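Methods: holo model generation. Sequences were used as deposited, without trimming of termini or removal of tags, and paired with ligand SMILES retrieved from the corresponding compound records. Each pair was processed once, and we did not select among multiple samples. The sequence and NAP SMILES for this entry were:
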Amino acid sequence: MRTPADLFRGNAAIFDCERFYSCVGATFAAWALPRLARSDGKNKEFAMRIGVIGMGNVGRALAPQWAKHGHQVTLCVRDPADPQRMEEAAAMNVKLGPVSAAGMCEVIVLAIPFTAVSEVLRSAGDLTGKLILDCTNPVNQDLSDLTMGYDRSAGEEIAQLAPTAQVVKILNTNGAKNMTDPDYGDHRVTMFYAGDDPAANRIAAQLAAELGFEPIELGPLKMSRLLEPLAMTWIILARHRGLGRDFGIDVVRRPQK
Ligand SMILES: NC(=O)c1ccc[n+]([C@@H]2O[C@H](COP(=O)([O-])OP(=O)(O)OC[C@H]3O[C@@H](n4cnc5c(N)ncnc54)[C@H](OP(=O)(O)O)[C@@H]3O)[C@@H](O)[C@H]2O)c1
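and the model returned the structure below.
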């Protein structure tokens, strides 16, 4: 089984500038390369500034995991002066800041309700060249259905709200508990993702692999139209069909003979 480190080694071609520039948009590549090569933190080749907006189930699950991998993580919240949150962030080894602090990061993670995205992106500052990881699911109040689909998606709407950023739909098809602990014995849970830019997709996949998932690309951002109903499937199984939170939806491969 491949470990996250193996996966990153498999992506070593990303440092071959010629091949890299030939296969991705130059603008995003120019943004991504220096950051991929930055040498600080535990994961010396891949340390990034990550602004996780929202300190609910998802934000609390993701932030400390990435901090353990050497990234500089800021939890961006509405009340950064709250003493309890400050204490919690310190225990996670992450910074606490206002939503506007996300604009200072290279990667912005939307761990907020979809209904809050428009307001939050307005407060986050200049998003040019940023990588936005969209974890949101456009669900109704009682989590029984999606509020949009199947001819549009939250992922695409977010890309329209942030046209100068690169949006990757990811981390929406697993419960927060899997983000903290995706260990199912000898099995790594699949994390599907979708985005239009190969370099952005690769970084998103690496960040998911660091959490312990097996990232699998579904295609362009438009595929969010499939990932959001897949998340709804997970939610229905978890909440209405008695599966609880200790399961994942997986790609299972036949062993090679
Ligand atoms: N829960 C899961 O297992 C799971 C899994 C995959 C994807 N998702 C998706 O991920 C997103 C977050 O889910 P969650 O379970 O973490 O939600 P949650 O526990 O309700 O937390 C939501 C967070 O968003 C913040 N927030 C809400 N409105 C905001 C605004 N206008 N400005 C700034 N922050 C705002 C809240 O801040 P306050 O603390 O200040 O209220 C809270 O910290 C949702 O879109 C959900 O569909 C959830």
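The CA atoms of residues 44 and 171 lie 24 Å apart.
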